[in-house]
Fold this protein.
Amino acid sequence: MSADHRGTQENNAHGNARQYIAQNGNVIVPEVPEEAGHRAKHRRWVKYGLAGILAGAAVVTYFVIRIEGHSKESNNLARHGPELKSNLAVSQLSAYITGGIDGESYDATEQNPVRTKATNLHGPHIDITLGNIANGASLVTKASIRFNRLQSLEPCAAVGGEVVVSANYQFKIPDDQQPVPPAKPFTLTKTISYEVTANKHDRLMLTVGLPNIPDGASPWLGVVDVILEHDGGQQLKIGPIALVDTGANSEFYPDGDKWKIPAEPAEGCIEKNIKLVSEVLKTPNLVVAREVAGLDRALRNFKESPAGQPMDGTTPPHPPNPTKGPPTGQPADDGQSAPAPVDTNVYTLLD
């Protein structure tokens, strides 16, 4: 008779285990509970050990990459030096009328007029101090003046003549953008090369105006922004700025921070100019040229004074020399010219 392979047999040798005989004749001895627990714990420790090894390898790899990166940066720094960066910003801004502009004058009634050289013409200047507190130089490659507003003041007196003064402004207002009637917004642009060295402040001077000023022309009033393009296309916006020019009217012109106003202005002239100046001065964050501020005071004082004299104790500017023509972009010989806050370190654009 053959053995029953599906049955069980006692282990008489040890007396503490049970054997199972499979149908194929193999003997299967089940684990004792204590042995199963030890085996499970062993497997857990193996898993923990593998996880620890992988984590350690990851940490080592991270630090190896960091060390290699620092080594590469150190090698690049040794070969090329530190990375140079610029930080161009405006540290000071002002606007005023002063001299130093060249040009010429001629008689507009003549067919082939003789042109006479003129020097030290007065006109609007925008004085910008730029700072570059950084370890690299900043290169300005383009300068633009955007006119948001350009309008002629009411002349208040009918004067005129045949003389035209042509001034060599860096930024010339084109013929199709004249202040009478008020011009639409437009932009004037020049390509330049102007470097502000590292950790330095430099001044940039811009002049702008009408290239031809006929005798008797009234001053214009404008609001502009300056945009400087630098360091690979970055743009620095400066402004808005309120500007006024001298005009060429012997009865209505600026002289320092005071103004010459006709003793008997045309009807409604003062009120129209007060309204225009007031609208300009409402522009948010406006930088006001000293002559614009002086014009606002002079117009209001004139309106309040029956005789047209200032009410604040100031004296009106000296009139132009009667033996000469009206002031064409520069003050009268016996007038008080405003001091020019410029120095030899000012960078001026060249044509």
User: Anything to note?
Assistant: Helices lie at 33-80, 269-281, 290-304. The first helix runs from residue 33 to 80.
